[in-house]
User: What shape does this take?
Amino acid sequence: MNLPNFHIEINKDLVWRLLLTFCAISIILSASDSAFANTQDDIIGQTLCRLTANLTGGIAKGIATIAIFAVGVGMFMGKLNWGTAAATAAGVGVIFGAPKLVSFISGDSANSNCPTG
Assistant: This one.
């Protein structure tokens, strides 16, 4: 391989692959601490509950608020279509309404909350 002629073309596919790789690595790192720090029986369930709590915490609510605000401004200025606005609203609704959706599908309200303590 001739190194002086070596170059990397930064395009949309490369950016998406790097973003997905970064997200996967951050999820693995955030989940691994709680998986090895706990000695109870349901380690995977508790790890997933901790990940859910992190993804629906205060930072996620702030990001969702900014996203809805940005979509509203974009709609007001005529820069976004209704499909983008509906997809953003549906995404926020699914993320924060997931516990209620799980309890509705399973038929048991005890399945919607992760144990605390």
User: Anything to note?
Assistant: The CA atoms of residues 74 and 80 lie 5 Å apart.
